[in-house]
Amino acid sequence: MVRVLITGATGFIGSHLARACLDRGDAVAVIARPDSSMERLADIEGQLDFHRLELTQPGSLRRCFAATRPERVFHAGARTRFDAQDDLGDMADSVDENLIPLIALLSAAAAADPPPKAFIRAGTIAEYGDISTPYVETARENPRNAYGASFLAGTHFMTMAQSRLPFRAVTARLALTYGPGQSQSFLIPQMIAKLLDGRPVEIRRPQDRRDLIHVDDVVRGLLRIAEEPDAAGSLVNLCSGVAPRVAEIARMLVELTDATPDLVRIEQTDHAPVELVCSPAHIRDSLGWSPQIPLPDGLERTVKWVRENTATPTLQTNTMVPA
Which residues are in coiled coils (predicted)? Predict the structure, then answer.
């Protein structure tokens, strides 16, 4: 049994991670904001050691670490979208919501007695931004927005601080994660919901490519990194390396939902295609990890879940990675 502490456990990826840790027999403590919905964890709430607090409350964080004494910390709580503002307020908001809480959590973990053995943070493919693909961990990043820039700043702060930390801190840059329970504000669940309802799906950038990875593979990768964080190093891509076109994804979902093809309406634009694809070579070579769920199987599982849970509202909170 391992003592685990998870932030963002009420969100999409965090809730899947919490369940996986419970299934392993771990003692799972979670940190959630006071106003976070418990819907994703309602059936397992009694098995979790719940701590409602803001990460920017140092006293509450210290008491949480003293009570839970985690051996592994998984930081999966963050805000993923910041609309660009003329006064650059999105930049300030991204620092307040993503960078400052990360530093506070690192500080509390470093001061804990005993400190954890590993600190694993869920990063994002958006940190790479507008550079050549496939993205590799040694690339010079060029994020496109405040979301990517705030995550990238956190990655650099963690790397800078490593010599001052009593544990290995790893950023796992996640590809575009999908699967059961994801918010309909993201690409795949939105398309599935519309196709099952017989509503049209508009594809504005059909030639864009997206590196997609099922949430179960992400969770398995995060747990593997936590087992050997030194082998992973400070930064590791957690991805499939497979990037189908958005139009191809839509065609696959039409078949899986038994929808009529004319529901997919493709708009031709003059925009150059954007490719978001990572190389999984480092995690494969260092930890022997590779994704186990091919895209067709993962999409089929996700469609099946949506069919079976159509009465359950799709949540909008703390989803880590836009898909």
Answer: none
> What region, left, alpha or beta, does residue 129 occupy, with left being phi > 0 and alpha being psi -120 to 50 degrees?
left
How many domains is the chain built from? Answer: 2
Please report where in the chains the tokens 């839970």 appear, as a residue.
68
CA distances from 90 to 81, 109, 138, 318, 322 (A): 9, 28, 27, 17, 17
| Phi, psi for 119 (deg, rounded to 5) | -130, 110
Asked whether 38 and 318 are in contact (CB, 8 A), the reply is no
In a domain, 224, yes or no: yes
Same domain, 300 and 170: no
Q: What is the pLDDT of residues 192-249, one digit of tens each?
A: 999 999 999 999 999 999 999 999 999 999 999 999 999 999 999 999 999 999 999 9
Q: Which helix (H) or strand (E) holds 73?
A: strand 72-75
Return the structure tokens found at 240.
């499939």
| CA–CA gap between residue 153 and residue 151 (Å, rounded) | 5
- Give the domain range for residue 304: 180-211+241-278+296-308
118 phi/psi in degrees, rounded to 5: -150, 145
Residue 207 sits in the same domain as residue 85? no
Please, are residues 2 and 26 in contact by the beta-carbon 8 Å criterion? yes
- Residue of 170, 188, 147 whose CA lies nearest to 12: 188
123 with 151: CB under 8 angstroms? yes
- Alpha carbons within 13 angstroms on the beta-carbon side of residue 264 total 23
Q: Is residue 229 in some structural domain?
A: yes
